[in-house]
Amino acid sequence: MSAAPAPSALPKRRVGKLTVFLLIVATLLLPTGVIGFWSQQTLTNSATFAETITPLAEDPTVQQEVIDLISDSLIEAAAASGARGDRVAGEIRQITGETVRSDEFQSTFQQAVEGAHGAVIGLLSGSPDSTVQVVDGEVVVDFGAVQEQVVPILAQNGITINEANLGDATVPLAPAESVEQAQSVYSVGQPMLQWFFLLPLALLIIAFFVSPYKPKATVGVGIALLVGMALVGTGWLLGNTVATGLAQATDYAEIAPTAYGIVVGGLVTLTLIVAILGVVLIVAGLLWSRSGRNT
Questions:
Q1: Torsion of CA 112, 114, 115, 119, to 10 degrees
Q2: Is there a domain that residue 262 lies in?
Q3: Is 274 domain-assigned?
Q4: Residue-wise pLDDT tens digits, 82-117
């Protein structure tokens, strides 16, 4: 007949199982927590988002999209104002191109993105701004400010455009029904994601303190961080594929990979930092365990 386990062994086993359970749950929640924290810091803050996305202003493909948009609109406005011909069209495209490729355009682009982003967030929150409009069933961003920046330069070069003839300078963002669906998701998800990262963090801390084997718990927390960040990395790769695929049916197919890389650059950095912390904890836990054996 085998001897019953020592009374102190049972609680330790149960606490050990509890520690493992907490670490597993924390690992599964970590990706959502990290992504939620990053999105709160980057995606929902207009100034931060604009600063993040501004490098797109230097992308030749983005610049050409803006040049074509503004040039086509101004050529139509010039024709309506009495200025027609290939020379006029060529000069409009040249001056528009010089303006868009100048250093000042980056600031103009950042202001346009910040204003549009703030308006989209306002729209999702139920308080729309005039910068974002619904035209023919699509949510659009008005880049009229960029168009107006070119008009005085054209006037200095002898091409006068009547402001009343200025046409559409909008870029479609998404179908209006997509925004309506996003409003309900945003209203629920935004408050939750704001503090969600505290949940897996709390579980990791609890797992460490309840564990009777602190060195092993330290290693376990490190492994949880590494696995969680591996899941985030997998999501990042899948997101890139999905974003590129969705963009194929839009006017943004060429710039989608670049835009995605710039937008999620902060998430990649945050993921690497957390993963490095995980490695540090694993090494520290192993050294702690080894020193405990030697004493």
A1: 130
A2: yes
A3: yes
A4: 878 888 888 889 988 888 888 888 887 787 777 767
